[in-house]
Amino acid sequence: MKVSSFLHFAGFGIKTILFKKKDPILGTVILTDKCNLHCKHCSVNNITAVIHPYEQIKGEMRQLYDMGVRILFFCGGETFMWKDSGKNLRDLVIEAKEMGFLIVNVVTNGTFPIDLPEADLILLSLDGDKERHNMVRGDTYDTIMGNIASATSDNICFYMAINQINKDHVRDVCITARDTKNVRAVSFNFHTPYPDTRELALSKEEKKECCDVIKQMMKEKCPVFNLKSAFPYLINNSFPTPCHQCVVIENGKVSTCGRCIDVPGLCDECGYFFVAEYTLLFKGNFKIIFDMLRTYLKYI
Question: Is the CATH number of domain 23-299 3.40.50.10540?
Fold first, then answer.
C-alpha cells in the first residue's frame, strides 16, 4: 500500500471514530447480475441478467467517488462477463484508478481467463476441495485452477463462503492458497441465509469450529486475509450492523452496506467477515485496529 493511501485511510478512520461519522469509504458497483453459473448458495444471480451500460457504470463510479469512497469493488453476477461500448472489465479498473480510487478490487468466479494486473486484489471464489467446490458451483474447479496458473499477476485472493456443504474443508482452501502460484491469500465469509438458502447456514457451534480451524491455519503460516480478533463477534453475530462505511450501488440504487439490507431480519444473521471487521474498526476497537493494520499492510 502506498504511504499516501495509508495516510488517507488513517485520517478517515480517526475522524470516523472520534466524531462518530457515517461517511462511506468502501463502495461496490454491481456491473451485472448475469452469471454463467448457478451456485447453490447464491440468491442474486440472473434475476434480470442485464449488462449495465458503460456510461451508467462510469456515472456510478463518479457518484461513489464524490461520496468519499476510495476503496472500490466491482461485483456481479460475473464481472468478467461485463462488456459494453467497446469497454471491458480491465478498462473499468484502469479508469477507476485514473479517477482517484486508492484500492480497486474485483470479485469473480474464476471461470474466465485472468488478465487483470491493474487490480489490487482479485477475489476469486473457491468453495472447498475439488469435490465440495463442484457440488456448490458445478464442474468448474479444474477450469478455475487452470486460469489461476495462467494469470498475469499474483493479485488473486481466494474468497470462500462457508456453508453446510463445505464447512469441513476450510483447511483445504487455506493450504491451496498457501501453495498455489499467483494466489496471495484467502478470505472467508459465513453463509448469509437468504430465505431461499437458509438450509446452508451454520450454527454458532459450527462457526466456532470453522474459526478454530482458520486460527490453526494462521499458526501454520497460511495467508489468511481476515482478522482473528473479529472471530468471537462473527460466531455470536454480536457486531453492529449495517456498516455505514460501506455502500453498494446497483442500477442507480445506493444501499448501505449491501444488497441484503432489504431482506427483513437478514442483518441480524450477517455472515460477512468484512462487515464485522469494518464496523468494529470504526467503533474504535483497538484489537481490530492493530489486527487490520498488520493484515492489510501485508496483503495489499
Answer: no
* pLDDT confidence band for 46 (50 / 70 / 90): confident
- Domain spans in the chain, listed from the N-terminal domain onward: 23-299
What is the DSSP code string of the chain?
A: --HHHHHHHHHHHHHHHHHT-----EEEEE-BS--S---TT-SSSSSS--B--HHHHHHHHHHHHHTT--EEEEESS-GGG-EETTEEHHHHHHHHHHHT-SEEEEEE-S-S----TTSSEEEEE--SSHHHHHHHH-S-HHHHHHHHHT-SSS-EEEEEEE-TTTGGGHHHHHHHHHHSTTEEEEEEEEPP--GGGGGGPPPHHHHHHHHHHHHHHHHTT--B-S-GGGHHHHHHT-S-SS-TTEEEEETTEEEES-GGGGSTTGGGG---HHHHHHHHHHTT-HHHHHHHHHHHHHH-
Whole-structure pTM value: 0.96
Average pLDDT over residues 229-253: 97
Residue 1 has pLDDT above 80, yes or no: no
Is the model's pLDDT at 249 over the cut of 80?
Answer: yes
